[in-house]
Amino acid sequence: xxxxxxxxxxxxxxxxxxxxxxxxxxxxxxxxxxxxxxxxxxxxxxxxxxxxxxxxxxxxxxxxxxxxxxxxxxxxxxxxxxxxxxxxxxxxxxxxxxxxxxxxxxxxxxxxxxxxxxxxxxxxxxxxxxxxxxxxxxxxxxxxxxxxxxxxx
Length: 153
Fold this sequence. Notes:
- The protein is of the alpha+beta class and about 150 residues long.
- It has one domain: Histidine kinase-like ATPase, C-terminal domain (Heat Shock Protein 90, 2-Layer Sandwich).
- The chain is about 25% helix and about 30% strand.
- The protein has helices spanning about 20-30, 40-60, 110-120; strands spanning about 5-10, 65-75, 80-85, 120-130, 130-140, 140-145, 150.
- It is globular.
């Protein structure tokens, strides 16, 4: 029981490079047996991670050149995916100050953290002398062989 697979990718602060995220997520999720609705899970994880990386580029680095690290780890018992990002951007965020958007009159921008919270099971953020650290966690629903969802213990 423990870590099944890991991947680390270092990305420049270039929006076009975010396309590299999808195949990395697909590769690491392939290490989990029979994820229920794997296409939906993969889409949701990629979307949340993409939103996080856009926020890192736009806010932490304020559009300046740099790079940041994305670490993905697949765990079993129970199966879950943990994604950690580390950046040295100079603009920390007050995550507690990010309000829920009014979905009756949704804003054009500013939905990234809301989306991450909706798509993932846990979203945490810390900042310190070494920079910013985000963690996204997704519990993975493992399907039983007969098609129903199994309890991963």
